[in-house]
Amino acid sequence: MSADRHAAPLPPASASARLRRLKALVRKETYQLFRDPSAIAIGVVMPVLLILLFGFALSLDVTNVPVAVVMEEPSPTASELAAGFALSPYFETYQLTSMPRAQQLLLQQKVDGIVRLRSDFARQLNSGDAPAQVLVYGTDANRARIIEAYAQGAMAQFLARRAAEGYPAANGGAVSVQSRLWFNEADDSHYFLVPGLIVLIMTLIGSFLTTLVMAREWERGTLEALFVTPVRVGEIILAKMVPYFVLGMLGLALCMFAAKFLFGVPFRGSVLLLTAVSTLYLLVALAIGLLISAITRSQFVASMTTLIITFLPALFLSGFLFDLRSMPAAVRILSYALPARYYVNLLQTLFLAGDVWAVVLPDAAALAAMAIALLALARAVTTKRLA
Amino acid sequence: MLEALLRIVALIRKELLAILKDPRSRVSLFLPPVLQCLIFGYAATYDLSNVPYAVLDQDRSAASHQLLAALDGSGVFRRIAQLYNQADIKTVIDDETALLVVQIGQDFERRLSAGLPADVEVIADGRNSNTAGTALGYVDAIVDTFNANWAADHGEAAPPLRVTTRAWYNANLETRWYMIPALIGTLTFLQTLLLTAMSVAREREQGTFDQLLVTPFRPFEIMVGKALPSVLIGLIQATLILLVAQLWFRIPFAGSYLTLYAGLLLFLLAAVGMGLMLSAVVATMQQAMLYAFVVMMPFALLSGLTTPLSNMPQIFQDFTFVNPLRYAIDIAHRVYLEGAGLDQLMPDLWPMAIIATVTLSAAAWLFRGGLE
Fold this sequence. Notes:
The complex is a heterodimer of chains A (about 375) and B (about 375).
Chain A lengths: L1 H6 L7 H21 L1 H21 L7 E7 L4 H12 L3 E6 L2 H9 L5 E5 L3 H6 L3 E8 L3 H24 L10 E8 L7 H31 L1 H6 L5 H30 L8 H26 L2 H18 L12 H8 L2 H15 L3 H30 L1
Chain B lengths: L1 H19 L2 H21 L7 E7 L4 H11 L4 E6 L3 H9 L5 E5 L3 H6 L4 E8 L3 H25 L7 E8 L6 H32 L1 H6 L5 H30 L8 H25 L3 H17 L12 H6 L4 H13 L5 H28 L3
Parallel strand pairs in B: 1-2, 1-3
Antiparallel strand pairs in B: 3-4
């Protein structure tokens, strides 16, 4: 080991001397962190900005969809159906009488859907077979599908109301689905966006910021300068990690605060467990940051690599937004190699379901294994590069 | 005039050399967009194709089997467990073995045959409520079909209202068709913004920018010389993603390439203008990168890529007026899926033209400021 070759001539350091050295180094790194306005931008401004965006701007809950209800021939029955749409919190209706005008609105994206009731709607409904057409703007498929489902729901309610008024109803013997959404009874998309937000912030501070700072030191050769002092490689790495670790934990605290008081997202697990798994994830993120910077030793390549390896997968491949089970096998297998996957799963469970050990234990074990392996690797690569 | 042109060409040549001479940065410019497009193309979909579910069938009748067979036959639902008591529901949902539990009560068939409504309780894991909601939507659709078949088989009257649905431009409602064209704008935006933000900062840090300023180059020429190579690289990246979308994912292209590239050119000018403006105000590469990132995040999140713009509060929708990515994604969708022409894209084009003009002139002006 080359590190030993350098370290050998030194007098054996006592534990207290090493601790003092470490403290001095940590202080230096902390000063360096807080003197750099760009580090503050990532470590403080970014998390606050992300919390605001995720909390207030992003939402997958579809409400107030503009739809055109086309009644080709006004009748009390058709108006009743249209009123059902107008009163629904999901829709904002425009009542029209001609289809071409509605299609024009759809093309201009003034409305997202058209409900078309043909001219003899009332008569056909009374005779038991009335066609109604729902036309949606399909480009945004997810939204379109939700709108379709809402439209069908509104029609079903209309039929149920009519049946209650004594009109001939549908077949009585139909299956009706009573659905219940566990853990998120209110069906509020913030419930899963906010835990995902924590993952993004921890990745940002743990990997992105660390990579940048370290890559600059590699690029400028200031790490080598540090290496000729009696400090050991392990101590350098540890001292670099401490301030970012603290910053990451502060980010977590900030998110928890916002989740509880700003967005009203419940937290049903234990805070101790949350802290423990977050520590593991942060260690993994820091190790990745150290590793990427030691391998690339260039700020540009390092930042690009971190963005591609850690940040974008945390958004796309972690199960935070998109369901992992529905991805092709190759992509799913790839996702097992990504720490963000386990952390997203842990956070969603701890926030909404509570301390479910069957989920927590395997995920935490995976993160712990990654943390150990990556930290050892980061230390080895750093040692090799410095010697 | 000719001299100025020659100078700009020389500068562009130099910039391209500087960007492309390092094999690592060459790889990091062209490989990631393709790989990301492939991976995210598969990953970024809200459609479900594999939903594990468990069954608590207390009826165990022909009717309940028929309903479950309809679920199994959908190709989406995969039955992973047969439960025998209520307490098991919590276990399979909690430890994520099942996304849904379908519970059928013991009088299911009796009620159905008697012409009474028969309830089926579906419990969904709402940890990701969007996924759960989509899965529940699939269940509703399957149950609707089941009801129609049941009515037909038992000679009952069909529901008096027949709803047919149709989606324009994306008949099967595949989210992939929405995501991948959006990636053309998103991935090139991330890369060109970083690239240009770094370009002047790198020269500043290495001291070569001062040398450039004492040459006969005017600030405007420097700006053009810095902007065009990045626009060119952005166009190449966009082309690569476009190729993946068409050759690999086979998403039909409805519009005209000329229209798409006209939109992309304007978009890249705006993106590059932002990058250069950023680059002109920062002192180091590190700052350039960090600030680029601080700008990129909100722009990417408020672009309509992951969540629809129309769901956002008005104040955030107003902010997206200065977001070139928002227009690029809209253009990509409208040209790619809908075949829109330039005249229809005007509401997207002119804001980008304004952003490009403002940011590029500001960058040129800021470069001059650097001389003093």
